[in-house]
Amino acid sequence: MIATDTLDTPAAVGSSAPAATPALPRGLAGTPDDKEMLRSAVELTRDIATARPEVYWPDMLLSAGLGYAALAGAILIGNPVLAALSGVVSALALYRALLFIHELTHIHKNALPGFRFGWNLLVGIPMLTPSLMYEGVHTLHHARTRYGTAEDPEYLPLALMKPWSLPLFALVALLLPIGLLIRSAVLVPLGAVIPPLRRLVWERASALSINPEFRRRPPEGEFARMVFWQELGASAWALFVMWWSATHSWRPLLIGIAVISLTALLNQIRTLVAHLWENEGEAMTVTGQYLDSVNVPPPALLAPLWAPVGLRYHALHHLLPSMPYHSLAEAHRRIVRHLGVDSTYQKGNYSGLLPLVGRLARSTMLPR
């Protein structure tokens, strides 16, 4: 961790010496901005900053199609080993399809005509995670004065918490599909006739956030209309699934829950290593945010599986939030080539998942 603490010596009484400069915050929050890195990241990548529909659509459709086909295999195949393997393939493919929700929060609403609707129809609503659960939430995580503070919905100082908090943080994700089913099949319909419950569900259970103190503000305008239709679609689908399972068989639903639980666990493990989680609540510079975030560039071979859709370049994403996922690898190569291996940029690059998990685990064991 980069420390830039400064000790100030008060001027003597009656002295004409100027007042001492206030100390910078501790840790990464006190990191001054590397203006050369920030400027280079923007200037070197202007020509690759446009989202390409010929990449987004096939990737999303193939990922979703493979995920659903493999899920059908997990349900229909009689051989337990082959069914389990099919379930793993389904979890990985649906994981990739689901993570396009991250792209939807950053691309301009007119950049990919129909993509938001198509993704919600094919992935978000069937998986009970419509884009309303991330849009208007994730952008707060990128806000200059919110990142790493108590007002950041996607930040917890995990590196400063107790060792048992890490496995608990990861394993609680296994309950996510059950929670989503209860939300869409029970809480949202009840909230339609019980306003206090509707407000509670919106404030506390409508966002893919990890900060338990986060409270979501009511939706407004065009976004409120989008929320209505997405909630209606998700609730209708959840109620249909429950009715079909009760009248036919619970087996497909239980297998689906198991597959989505694995998908949620993968995402939670990725979240564990998306940042260093070392900030203690202070507002951070953009460079501080970058250094508290993580790139896992090549030659790490498995990163596309556990951090798909460009999320292996998560630190770079915090420098260039609107850069489409298909351009991040090229942006990374250009910045490294321009700034060199001794730059601040290089300090955000790591070798793989396990070393990052080990670093985080060791941090939780340090005396506080």
From TrEMBL:
Keywords: Membrane, Transmembrane, Transmembrane helix. This is Fatty acid desaturase. The chain crosses the membrane at residues 66-95, 115-134, 168-194. InterPro entries: FA_desaturase_dom, Fatty_acid_desaturase. Residues 82-336 form the Fatty acid desaturase domain. One of its GO terms (molecular function) is oxidoreductase activity, acting on paired donors, with oxidation of a pair of donors resulting in the reduction of molecular oxygen to two molecules of water. The keyword RNA-binding does not apply. One of its GO terms (cellular component) is membrane. One of its GO terms (biological process) is lipid biosynthetic process. It comes from Novosphingobium taihuense. It comes from the Bacteria. Residues 1-32 are annotated as: Disordered.
